Amino acid sequence: MRIAFVDGGTYYHHATYNDPQLRPYFHSNLYAPELPGADLDDIDCLYVASRQNPEDLIAAQDTIAAFLAAGKLVVALGESRADLWLQGVRWRPCETNFWWWLQPGADSGLRLGAADHGLFAHLDLAAATWHRHGELQPPEGAISLVNTVDGGSVLYDDSVTTAGRMIVSTLDPCYHHGSYFMPATTRFLHGFLPWLKAGAKVRREG
Question: Record's superkingdom (predicted)?
Answer without folding.
Answer: Bacteria
